[in-house]
Every structure is written in C-alpha cells, then in structure tokens.
Amino acid sequence: MTRIFPAADGHCDFLYGMLERGYDIAAPVKDQSITLDALIAGGVKLQFFAAWIDMLLDKNPLCQCTGMIDAYYRMLESNPVLTPLTSDFDPASDRIATVLTVEGGEAIEANLYNLAILHRLGVRAMTLTWNDVNRLAYPAVKKSKKGLTRLGREAVAEMCRLGIAVDVAHLNDAGIDDVLSLSTRPIFSSHTNARALCDSPRCIKDEHIRAISTMGGVIGVNFYYKQLTDKKAATIDDVIAHIAHFIEIGGVSCVALGSDFDGMNRYIDALKNSSGFPLIAERLIKLGLNEREVADIMFNNLYRYILHFI
Length: 310
Prior knowledge:
The protein is α/β, with parallel strands linked by helices. The chain is built from ten helices and eight strands. It has a single domain (7-307), classed as Alpha-Beta Barrel (TIM Barrel), CATH 3.20.20.
C-alpha cells in the first residue's frame, strides 16, 4: 500500500476556474483538477490558491483580482475543512490549510498602495508577471534582457516590508537577478522547473536555484509537460528528474511541489489531480531519499517557508 505523506502544493489556478468556468471544489465540473476529494486522497495539508490575472478579459486587473479573492473566501465559508494558514496550524488535524496568492503584478495597477490592500485581504505571495510585459517587469517567455522597472524595484521593497513573498515564477532571468539583489526576505518560485533538463525560458537556471536555496527560499516543481521535457509528452519520471536536479544543485531543503493544476491543457497520466501526490513520494523513496527528506519535499519545505509571511 502506498504511504500517504502530508503534501503542500505551491500553485493552482482553481480560483480563475471558479469565477470563469463554474468550478466548485466540493462538486467538480468537467475538466476541473482541484477538488476536495482529490486533495484529501493525495494527503494535501497546504494548498496555495492563486488569483491569476487574465489580460484578455474585459475586466480591469484589480477587479479581476478582488473577484477571485471574494471567490476564495466564499469557498472557505462553504467548505469548513479548508482554513487560512495560521502559525498554529496543525498538519495532523483533519483540516487543509490554504494560502491566497496573486499571479501577475498587473493586479496592483501600478499603484503600490494596492499591495497593502491585497495584504490586508490575505494575499501572502505574488508573481511580478505572468506571460505579459507589465509596469513592473518582463516575463520569461518574451526573452527580454531587461530587468525590473523602477516601479518593479519599488514593488519588491514594499512586498518585503509588508510580508508578501516575492514569487519569481514567470519572471525573466534579468528580473530574477534583480529580485535576488533587492529582496530583504527569502524569495521563492511557486511553479518552476530546471532549465538544465528542459530548455524553456520558464525553467530556472542552476545559478538561480543555488541563490534561492542559499537565501532560504524554495522552488516548486510543476507538472506542465512543456516545462518538464523537450519531448512531446511528459511522465511522472520527468517530475522526479527535476526534483533530483534541484536536490543536486540546491539541496533537499529548497525543493517543493507547485503543481499548476487547473492551469494546464494537458496532464501527466499519473498526475491529473492531487490524488497522484503519493506516487511522487513513493518514487522519491525508490530514488534513495529517506522518509525525513521525502517529508521535507512533499510538505515541510514550503510550509516552513510560507510561515514567515503568515
């Protein structure tokens, strides 16, 4: 029987689906990945929920963001098993802790005061970009060599002051360099893989893995096939290979999971939802890691990291 380790997942796009596609965490619809049943089956004890800003929608970014924040709190009210993460949360309880995040710095609409508002609403992490150039920074997919804008640098300082974790997922290399030089708190990358194994600009360089690890940050391996392999399809073995690479470069303490569930159009057969997490733990044991190391990767590393912002 496969052992179920407590699991923490650093990124999903469920809230966008809740608003735009009728997703319900307790009564799932077609093509929905994040569900209560799957979270429980996979041993998930900590789930990050991102408010993803879709610049193709005819809604201003802050309005989108607050709409998803409202959806997040409605989800919690309707499902008492879900609870905002607090410093006294007990992973051995029957509840699932949650963390509210933002994906896309467009949400603040170039106004640093909006960061304080988002923090008061419960946001504890934010990416500076998604896949579009904005007033803060340049995304990885545009392959720009420009770093953070002046406003982007000010945003990093304000996020550090407030206690909003700087998430460098989707950020370009020059932007990551800038964040590393500016941040007064450990940074993280919620859903990013290793460029040494997959030649995608969305994957992270070894030097950035080392730097994030050295400052006490974490990197969540995601399950999107285009960021796992240069082949046409990915398997759970590719996920394990990226975890192993992060361990080799940054040590066990920097590795976490960041599925990107409900943010993909194709899934790995064994990892279509959170119920597949125990298979990752099983593979890590077979890889030669001890149970403490597996527990750190599956849950403890991300949990310990984000507690500094709670």
